[in-house]
Amino acid sequence: GHFSGTVDAMKASPLNMKVSGSTVQATLDGTVTGLPSISGMEVDARLSNTRFTTGDLTALIRSIAPKSKMDISRFGTKETYTLKAQAKGSLNRMDATASLYQGWTDGSINIKAIVSNIHKNRKSALSASGAFSARNFALGKLLDVSKLGGVSADSFFKVSLPYGGENLSAELDSLEISEL
User: Fold this and answer.
1) What share of the chain is helix, strand, coil (3-state, %, to 5)?
2) Is the Cα dihedral 66, 112, 105, 19 positive or negative?
3) Helix, coil or strand: residue 129
4) Residue 66 CA, distance from chain mean position
5) Average pLDDT, the chain
6) Alpha-helical segments (H) within the chain
7) Residues 117-134, mean pLDDT to the nearest whole number
8) Is residue 143 within 8 Å of residue 75, measured between CB atoms?
9) Of 24 and 122, which is predicted with more confidence?
10) 118 neighbors 91 (Cβ within 8 angstroms)
11) Cα end-to-end distance, the chain, whole Å
12) Pairwise CA distance, residues 111 & 158, whole Å
């Protein structure tokens, strides 16, 4: 893949990425307009063909953010996950969708959200609100608990992370579990 255009109207043709010695891979394509003004920037990006294990994803996150304490490597250790995602809008209000698929089963988690204040000002909280659904997602495989099967659930959510990263707040409007 490659980038084309000018700074104020860039296009990325499919960029195929693979982390050497790992299962992590992805394809990114889309456009960015409005630069060099960050507040006027508009993004239309798609992530596809994304594959990873939880161990390799944890290693990638730690290589990018060495101080990160996030460790998801103990979950779903025998599974390979795939992800498709899309984001469109400004850094002040972006529509985002993501679908996570587990192994070769038909299980999935889907999220559709509006993300706000990614880059508004240092005093505004980063926030997201939207809908979450799971369809036959093998929770037992993720948690390594054989007695749990696939879960299907629906919920609406709202998350807020104030500047500085303290006092994360999260709300579930409703949670309907139709299968467990």
Assistant:
1) 10, 55, 35
2) negative
3) strand
4) 20
5) 87
6) 54-64, 139-143
7) 82
8) yes
9) 24
10) yes
11) 42
12) 12
Cα(74)–Cα(59) distance, integer angstroms:
12
Instruction: Classify residue 53 by its DSSP letter.
Output: -
**CA distances (Å), origin 112, targets 6, 31, 100, 127:** 31, 20, 12, 13
Q: How many CB atoms lie within 10 A of CB 10?
A: 14
What count of other Cβ atoms lies within 10 Å of the Cβ of residue 108?
17
Number of helices followed by number of strands (H, E) in the chain: 2, 10
Chain centroid to Cα 1, Å, comes to: 22
- Distance between CA 138 and CA 124 in Å, rounded? 37
71 three-state secondary structure: coil
Torsion angle of the four alpha carbons 10, 13, 19, 25, in this order, in degrees rounded to the nearest 10? 120
Tokens of 169: 């707040």
Helix runs in 2-133, H state only: 54-64
Helix (H) or strand (E) holding 102: strand 93-102
Q: Residue 63: what pLDDT? A: 84
The two beta strands, 169-179 and 150-161, are antiparallel
Cα–Cα distance measured from residue 94 to residue 88, given in angstroms and rounded to the nearest whole number: 6
* Whole-number Å distance between alpha carbons of 65 and 14: 25
| pTM over 0.85, yes/no | no
The total of other beta-carbon atoms located within 10 Å of residue 6's CB is: 8
143 dihedral zone (left: phi>0; alpha: psi -120 to 50; beta): alpha
